[in-house]
Amino acid sequence: MGIDSDGLNPAICSHHKQLSRRTLLRASGLGSLSWLSPVAELLAGQPEVESPRSKPRSMIVLWLAGGPSQLETFDPHPDSSIAGGTRAIQTNVPGIQVASGLEQIAEQMDDISLVRSMISREGDHERATYQVKTGFRPDPTVVHPSLGAVICHEISNRSFAIPSHVSILSSQWPARGGYLGDDWDAFVIYDPKQEIPDVQTPVSVSRQETRMKNLEFVERHFARHRIKDLESKKTRHQATMRKALEMMHSDLLTAFDLGAVPQRELGEFGDTPFGRGCLVAAQLIEVGVRCVEVTLGGWDSHINNHGIQSDRVAILDPAFAALLRRLKSRDLLKDTVVLCGGEFGRTPSINPAGGRDHWPHGFSVALAGGGFRGGKVIGATDPEGSKAVEQPIQVADLHATILNVLGIDFSRKVQTPVGRPVRLSPGKVIGDLITTLS
Amino acid sequence: MRIRQVSFIAILTVLLAALLTGVLLYDNRLPRPHQFVLRSENHDDLFGVIRKVDQQFLESWELRGLEPSGVASDLTIVRRMSLALTGTIPSLQEIRFLEQQVEGDPVQWWLSRLFEDRRYADYVAERLARGFVGIEQGPFIKYRRRLFLTWLSDQLIGNVPYDELAQQLISAQGNWMDNPAVNFCTVTIAENDDQEGPDEKRLAARVSRSFLGLRIDCVQCHDDFMGGHWKQQDFHQLASFFSGTELSLSGLQDREHVYEFQYHGAEAARVVPSGVPFQQALLPDEGTPRFRLARWVTHPENRAFSRAVVNKVWALLLGRPLVDPVDEIPLEGPYPPALELLASDLVEHDYNLQRLIRVIAASRVFRMDSQGRVDQPIPSEQHEKHWAVFPVIRLRPEQVAGSLIQASSLKTINAQSHVVMRIVKFIVQNEFLKRYGDKGEEEFNLENGTVPQRLLMMNGELVRNKTSNNLIFDISSRIALLASDNEKAVEAVYLSILTRRPVPDEHRYFVSLLSESPEKREEIIQDLCWVLFNTTEFSWNH
Fold first, then answer.
1. Which of A175, A256, B222, B284 is deepest in the core (most CB within 10 A)?
2. Which of A122, A198, A231 lies at the smallest CB-CB distance from B455?
């Protein structure tokens, strides 16, 4: 794979050329078509202007799918019978150790807090993922929105041309809008090396214009004599189509593209899909996307625990660390909450296949960013491997804390479609973790 | 290039060509169903109940001063039925076949065909299963969704009475692989939880919502304080029926067990005996707890049960239930037109699901046009709310996917189709659904579509493949190839994708586009296909 003279890697330079939206529209003569909404025209002219916020306004979730072992990541017990040979290393915060393999994260521990005493009652991947992503256990009466969807619903700009809620590399159970509506489902993309799915039109601009004109013609027939305000009050099909076209032509789409990123920086994040995903997450936050989830799967080490965990850690470490450094260097770490964790941990005892099984009785998450103290550890698990934890923290408490830090009233009730009001989070704030209580 | 390479490529080409030819020429002629001719002399009581249903709606419209719309075309009605019962639209092949039928009501004839089609049983099984076992994958060792679906599909093809089906689900015993009905219970077993066996609370919730149309589970944690009369006790006494259900080596069994629960505000847990929340006299004295519960649920006098299934089947067919939400029907009326009538008819005819579907499909409401009459004012929201015009309802993701795939095939893709077609359909549909989104358990959600869905339909791979130069899977190429003139080509595209003929304006317009640029024939047909795939009409039921 050759590198060109700018240090850019053409292999991952997207086909999506760096044309401004205005240029594209003018070239195609589409700029004056009636279907383009006034809001879209406005967006073409102005970048998103926001009033200054004292609280963080974005979130990045590094989702470790499959159940990362706390003993091989953030909660090592190196000198105990449950260590299985895993060593620990010092971090730049005296008294805090992490597992060997997390050397780069160890150098940033003064920006990171660890909660080592997360507990839940879900040991099944799907149900536990639901619980950690939404803060609620699965419930037959209602589908809860993920944390990202709640945040976007509460504080994002609804006329933003690209999705406010994005999920990168999720293969199963990506973050979704639940009872808030599928408008708040995360927009799913895969390895950023590939083109963003579904935003490129396969035909020429003039042919696309003809198609749209003919579509309008057929739509007029459909609307005839059907119920009043069919489009504006009910289907909103054409309105949604206009928003989709807006997105296709938005300059903001370049935030998904790694073509302009120097090779050196790509290398810092790691030449992996997850590393690239973290880099794109940073770019998206920089242009105003509210919530991004980046998934690193493959942690479910029922066999060969140490081999699998160290493999995954080798991918996680550079990406997580580089992400924090990048956010810091652009003065965005204070405006962004970064959460890293999975649906549960792994058993302290090692099974006959050299693996660890599911363990929701004391697992770890890492938190960084605005509103959170760095270099703090909450809770502790038993070095002998029992279920006893110090300062157990419910998943709901984690959610309440994050919402609080973002300035969202987590105790507020929302009316769900079943007629039942539900709090945004039933948890309480973990006071020790945050810098200010509000 | 070496001779060996050339030979290899030549052999490969021949093999591929053979495969392509096989797929294209594969004979999947449509089988003739048993004749079902709806004549009054041999289906008097069917006609009777249809007339009564229509009468009740007529009275309702008169009361509200609503003028009902006219009758929809046969093709429109057939499209609705196919979407509701098979999750896809009729193929061009099926439409041609339908239009050749002269005897009897084409709509009832179509229904007879559907009831014998495995696609009906598979699709309706999936829809019902969402209420019975949810969509989660569940505990892998003790639950097999696929087996459960196959079993449920078999029950539907055999038209097993619905009360028997419900009884089996609630009270089945044994191994979940040998007796798939058991999966109704085993899906609720949580991995790594302290509790062994199925979760009685989740089962009580499922039984009350799915079979009784009651949301008693809302009072799991506290009494109803929103105007309803359910108490926490009602829920937990229902849960108590399942508390002795355990999974042992021989499968699901019922043991003696004392269920204890600490009510909200109470100081300690106490024993909760099993009990039903209403019509206690219908509960039999003998039998295991689940057996007794099953008999109570399906008792002919338990109106909640018969209303719940009528409401669910109505919603399946029309896209919206009679009582909304579908699983929350008050125990006492007043009820909307037809609900009680259809519930009584169902009980009188041994919970025959196919009969219920026939009655609804023959009703004036189901055949109503979603367009108002030309000589009448435009229909209002009130017209739609009270069924005086057919409701325009967004299609579910799998219906859009199924329609997209079928529309581009010309021939019907069913159990008789070439295995390559079926495999491709399965894979392609799943990929599409991953991006389009799945509604999950929330069955009848009337939201409008999302931007990613529109992007997928405008630019996604599936639509792109269906409107490009690909002879196997691309409708536009085949129509361009097969249709002899422009008029027939435009008609074929409309029939394949929208299940209707173009109106004169549309026909004229697109035919003239083709005549003006004969050198761009294929491109224009491709564009027409793209346009129709992206209309509101394609993605909505109407």
1. A175
2. A198
Q: Do A218 and B537 touch (CB under 8 A)?
A: yes
Residues in chain B: 542
Among chain B residues, the shortest Cα distance to A227 is held by: B379
Measured CA to CA, the distance from residue A239 to residue A36 in angstroms comes to 10
A213 in B contact zone (CB under 8 Å): no
* Nearest chain B Cα distance for residue A16, angstroms: 14
Q: What is the pLDDT along chain B (542 residues), one digit of tens a residue?
A: 566 667 767 776 666 655 555 545 544 444 444 444 444 444 668 889 999 999 999 999 999 999 999 999 999 999 999 999 999 999 988 898 888 876 778 888 889 889 999 999 999 999 999 888 887 766 667 778 889 999 999 999 999 999 999 999 999 988 888 899 998 988 888 765 555 688 888 899 899 999 999 988 778 877 776 667 788 888 999 999 999 888 887 888 888 888 888 888 888 888 999 999 999 999 999 999 999 999 999 999 999 999 999 999 999 999 999 998 888 899 998 999 999 999 999 999 999 999 999 999 999 999 999 999 988 889 999 999 999 999 999 998 889 988 988 887 767 777 677 776 677 777 777 778 878 876 555 566 656 788 888 998 999 887 887 666 554 556 666 776 677 789 999 999 999 999 999 999 999 999 999 999 988 888 899 899 999 999 999 999 99
Q: Which residues of A touch B138 (CB under 8 A)?
A: 124, 126
Would an 8 Å CB–CB cutoff place A351 in contact with chain B? no
B86: closest CA among B327, B368, B415, B382? B415
> pTM value?
0.84
User: Which residues are CB-contacts of B7 (< 8 A; sequence separation ≥ 6)?
Assistant: none
- Cβ atoms < 10 Å from Cβ of A47: 10
Q: What is the ipTM of this complex?
A: 0.84
The answer to whether residue A143 neighbours chain B at the CB level (below 8 Å) is: yes
Phi first, then psi, for residue B394 (nearest 5°) are -65, 140
- Residue B392 to residue A235, Cβ atoms within 8 A: yes
Q: Which two tokens stand for residue B403?
A: 């329609």
